Amino acid sequence: MIRLFAAVLAAMLVAAAPGRAQDRPAEPEDYRSGDYRSPVPATLAGARVLTTAEAETIWRDKSGVFIDVLPRAPKPANLPTGTVWRDKPRLDIPGSTWLPDTGYGKLAASTEDYLRQGLAHASNGNEAMLLVIYCQENCWMSWNAAKRVLSYGYRNVAWYPDGTDGWERANLPLANAEPEPHADEAK
Questions:
Q1: Distance CA 137, CA 74 (A)
Q2: Considering 9, 10, 32, 62, which has the largest number of Cβ atoms within 10 A of its Cβ?
Q3: How far apart are CA 54 and CA 159, in angstroms?
Q4: Which residues pair with 68 in a beta bridge?
């Protein structure tokens, strides 16, 4: 009887836990085009969804390429003349390729080219290489980007929905990141 009570109590605690799959939105048919910082689905058709422990194993084994898609803050348009602008530092999973602004619902042709070129460079043109797509927790940018990467023909796509927030909570290392340059920028 005590075991039955304990099992029922454990099931109730799991059901009451925040962030359950039942509390998450269903996968949309298309890309998310607004309210990007909100709960994300628990799944992404065609992709493997990673926990922090799984992402760490891939990172430590160097068995995949990590792609960060967090947007880069734009330079304010109304800065007084002579004002020095410094980008906000991005702490990233070490060794990642940062392809900012590539997770929006709709991409300009130049941004889509930038994403394709960045993926080809990071994967050495190998469409079977494991690509781990992420940004931050509850960020649709990574979900959109992973879905888009699948549409490009990459066959081994993993989505890490906890992103750098989950990585940091696990006390895993972070490193300063610089965006992958666009084709027309000097490295």
A1: 21
A2: 32
A3: 11
A4: 98, 134
Structural contact between residues 102 and 145, judged by C-beta atoms closer than 8 angstroms? yes
Write the Ramachandran bin of 19: left for phi over 0, alpha for psi from -120 to 50, otherwise beta.
left
CA distance 95 to 39: 27
pLDDT digits (tens, 9 = 90+) for 101-137: 999 999 999 999 999 999 999 999 999 999 999 999 9
Distance (Å, whole) CA 41 – CA 17: 16
- Structure tokens that stand for 172 in this block: 């895993």
The encoded tokens of residue 115 equal 């994403």
**Structural domains in the chain plus CATH codes:** 41-73+89-181 (3.40.250.10)
pTM, to two decimals: 0.83
Beta bridge partners of 61: none
